[in-house]
Amino acid sequence: MNFNLFSFILSFGIYIFVAVYEEILLRGYVLNNLMCSFNKYIALLISSVIFSLLHAGNPHVNLFTLFELFIAGILLGLPYILTKKLWFSIALHFSWNFFQGTIFGFNVSGQENYSIIETKFSVATIWNGGDFGFEGSIISFFLQIFGILVIYYTFRTEKSM
């Protein structure tokens, strides 16, 4: 265990900023504008490609991690296209990064960060995400697909559909 109050608060603030900034930019602006010109699901796919490519310069990125980020873009954008509200996407984005990095000790999108629990792997594999972090793993892929299905079936009855 490695608890440092200052680092914890700083990490919390950074992940809040990243979630708010990226969601306002990518879902609130890009996805919202794309939905004016395209079917909302086509717009979601395009914005997810953009989300993935914005992370292309991150450390330890590869084709699989870019694909994973594309799936994450769908996971984060789906609540917005179904509800027209950003709060769920912001909360999900923050939670994903904060728990993955600060709590469980994985790199977040290839970035090393402060963590309460120090997670070390003897071998970096596609199962643990290696140096990119948990979001670059096959397990993450299945969790994200599950999340997409849960969000879709939960929010599909909203009046905004």
Q: What would your notes on this structure say?
A:
The chain has 161 residues and is mainly alpha-helical. It is 65% helix and 0% strand. It has 5 helices and no strands. Helix 2 (40-54) crosses helix 3 (63-83). The N and C termini lie far apart (45 Å). The model has no long low-confidence stretch (mean pLDDT 94).
Question: Any low-confidence stretches, pLDDT <50, length ≥5?
Answer: none
Based on CA atoms alone, the radius of gyration comes out at 16 Å
Give the helices and strands as they follow along the chain.
Answer: HHHHH
Please report the number of helical segments: 5
Output mean pLDDT.
94
Sheet with the most strands, sense and barrel status: none
Structural class: mainly alpha
Principal-axis shape: globular
| Helicity range | 55-70%
Strand content is under 5%
Q: Span between N and C termini?
A: 45 Å
Describe how the helices and strands are arranged.
Layout: H1 5-37, H2 40-54, H3 63-83, H4 87-103, H5 138-155
